[in-house]
Each structure stands twice: as C-alpha cells, then as structure tokens.
Amino acid sequence: MIRFDALLSRFGYCSRREAPVWVKSGRALHRGLPVRNASEKVDPHDVLIDGSPVPFPDGIYVALNKPTGYTCSHREEGNLVDDLLPDSWLRRNPSVTTVGRLDKDTSGLLLITDDGRFVHDMTSPKKHVPKIYAFTTSEPVPEETVALFASGAYMLQGETTPCLPADLVLTGECSGTLTLHEGRYHQVRRMLAEAGAPVVTLRRTHIGMLSLDTLGLEEGEWKEIDPASIRP
Q1: DSSP line for 92-116
Q2: Which residue, among 133, 132, 134, 122, has the nearest Cα to 230 in the 3D structure?
Q3: What are residue 98's DSSP bridge partners?
Q4: What is the CA radius of gyration of the chain?
Q5: E-assigned strands of 138-172?
Q6: 72 neighbors 58 (Cβ within 8 angstroms)
Q7: pLDDT, tens digit, for every residue of 135-145?
Q8: What does the pLDDT average to over 55-60?
Q9: 127-186 pLDDT, tens per residue?
Q10: What share of the chain is helix, strand, coil (3-state, %, to 5)?
Q11: Which is the catalytic residue, given 5, 50, 82, 103?
Q12: Are 172 and 75 in contact (CB under 8 A)?
C-alpha cells in the first residue's frame, strides 16, 4: 500500500503537492471507489487514473531495439533513446534508465528499467550475464585473435586488469560475433581495433537468454519483458 499522493509522484502523474487537485477532480478510483484524500493508502494494482490502470505498477522492464544515431545519455544533444519512450516514464521517481549503454553508432538490444537493483544485476561482471554483439570490420580479423580473446589474459590499452574471457566466432574474414561478460567502455570496438580490425558496424543481438530476433522488434520499438526470463 502507498499514499495516493506518493503514487501520483512515483508513477509520473504529478507532484505530491498537486495531488489534492486530482482528488477534488475525481480522476482516481481505488477498488471502484473515488479517492477522497491525498493521504489515503491505496494499492497501485487497484487504482484507475482517468479510467486507466497505473502502468507498470511493479516497475518498468522493457527491451528496446535501439537504432543507430541515438545516444543513451539524458543530456546530450541530438537524438536520444529517451525520445523513443513514453514521456511519463521519464517523470517517474525514480525515472527510467538504460541498463548499460550502447554508443551512438551501435544498434540492437537495450534494456530499459526504473529498478536500480536490476541495473546492477545486469551490468556487474560478477553476475556473468552474457551479451552477444554481431560486427563487421574494415580489415580481416586475425584468426589468432579467437584464442587471444578467450584466454582471459587479453589486456586493453590503458587498462590495468585483463578482460574476462570473450568468445569470438568468425563468420567471415571481416565479420563475426563476440560474446562478453562485462561492459568496459567501447569494449568491442577497442578489442577489435587493437587486433587490427576496426569495427564498421556493430549490433547487440542478445542479453542473457533474450534474443532480439525472438523478440521480433523493429528498430525503435520496445516490448515489456519478464526480468526473470533473462537468466537460464
């Protein structure tokens, strides 16, 4: 149970100070009865606002097919991932955030949530959630790179600890997939560039058990997911 004014603020309808106006206007029902006081305790699952249920009362967990040209920051200029999401999600407290980031020139599977613990579980190297990236390069990828990336001894320039073992599968001289269990800054691009094969295109296709192809999302589309479905 939660106070009605806290519900309005938590789920992005209005500030707690504005809640009495919503009460007076009769815009909210709790279990079929009008909410009479802003301090009234309500169950978000049983509230109707303007005749509609409270969206995602247990938290937002969605998968988005991010197009290239969009950035994950809330503050940068240009096209933002936020522009692809409902405005009300950004007004929630806490507001939604991306689970990790894909850079502007990388497309593919991106998770969106308002659950900080979920973000930690999905991004911590200790959780070992695999992420698969499909890439093309401007130069052939040396075959010996497969064993090097898998060794657990590969050290990126400027880093002080080696990368976790990564599974590189070559599908052509200049194409393949790379599976990571961590998320260092521009890691795929840096690893391949230092191997002599700069990335031309990069697309994240999997996070844990989630597959972009199975989700059936067009670029820019999102779909609700069960957070428990990501792990085997």
Answers
A1: SSSPPEESS---TTEEEEEEEES-H
A2: 122
A3: 112
A4: 22
A5: 167-172
A6: no
A7: 999 999 999 99
A8: 96
A9: 889 999 999 999 999 999 999 999 999 999 999 999 999 999 999 999 999 999 998 999
A10: 25, 30, 45
A11: 103
A12: no
Extract the tokens encoding 68.
Answer: 């290239």
47 closest CA partner among 94, 96, 2, 92: 2
Q: What is the DSSP letter of 12?
A: T
DSSP-derived pairing of the beta strands 41-42 and 97-98: unpaired
Pair of tokens at residue 79? 């096209």
Global confidence as pTM: 0.91
Rounded distance between C-alpha atoms, residue 102 and residue 58, angstroms: 26
As given in the structure block, the two tokens for residue 115 are 């659950």
Q: Which residue has the tokens 């990335």?
A: 199
Per DSSP, the residues of 191-231 read HHHHTT--EEEEEEEEETTEEHHHHTPPTT-EEE--GGGG-
3-state secondary structure of 16: helix
Contact 111, 62 (CB under 8 A): yes
Please confirm, yes or no, whether 114 is among the known catalytic residues: no
Residue in this structure with the two tokens 């097919």, named with its chain if needed: 65
